[in-house]
Amino acid sequence: MASPTTTAADTNANDGAGNSNNHVHPEKVPPPRAPSxxxxxxxxxxxxxxxxxxxxxxxxxxxxxxxxxxxxxIALFASGGRPGPLTxxxxxxxxxxxxxxxxxxxxxxxPILKGPKGKGVLKALEYVKAFSMAAYVSCxxxxxxxxxxxxSQDTTVMxxxxxxxxxxxxxxxxAMAVAKLxxxxxxxxxxxxxxxxxEIGTVSAVGYADRKVALEEKALRVILDVxxxxxxxxxxxxxxxxxxxxxxxxxxxGMFMSLVGIYQILMQIPLPELNPPPSNGSNLPPGAPTPSxxxxxxxxxxxxxx
Length: 306
Prior knowledge:
Layout: H1 8-13, H2 40-46, H3 51-58, H4 61-79, H5 85-97, H6 104-114, H7 121-147, H8 156-200, H9 205-240, H10 247-266
């Protein structure tokens, strides 16, 4: 009887001693999942400020200015620009804000006196921002002095002070927003590179989580600066008459601008510590290895080995 035909598979499956050559490949273990990290900036922006946080806002002259500005635009929005008590309240609150900005011209020039940080175009934008904002507040003080009778309103300077004020505000705010764009671009580039490093395994799970949330929080701060500068520029151009905008829409934009300013001050309050990582393996899928820890991550703040 003819012997059965031996296939290539049978030949590969058995060696000369009758032992199987099949290699059993273990199931591929998924990479460790990074421990969760709470974005503290996003949480602060999305939540109602606490009494302690608002107390710190009111402790700053700029904070008082922003809060009173919010009340001013609320009153003007409710009045719809029509003459009446609400409009009078809004205009009165606008005058009440001016003492909080008494030293703003000097504050605006401090970055120039200390020396601009940027180079090239960024340095030029710092100069534009400083001189424009100083002109804005200085001319606004002149307008105020003319309104209360301290200065004559018949002079040439007083006739153009209001337009110079709004023009300086628009130019300085635009320069502030544009100057922040390169920083935002760099943060986004770092986030993209961090994602690539995580894919090829050159960063630990814990290190990736900490670095990612730190960059995201930094990005949100810069985004707030860009939004604030852009919104202020639009409001200033609308008040200057360069952008046609209904009074109610302008008031609504002013409310948003004031809220952004308040949250910018809230961002200056120290953030709580990052939530600690879970215990070893508590956030990993079954059978996954423990995340690797770099040399810098083996020591806690007290210098003790983890």
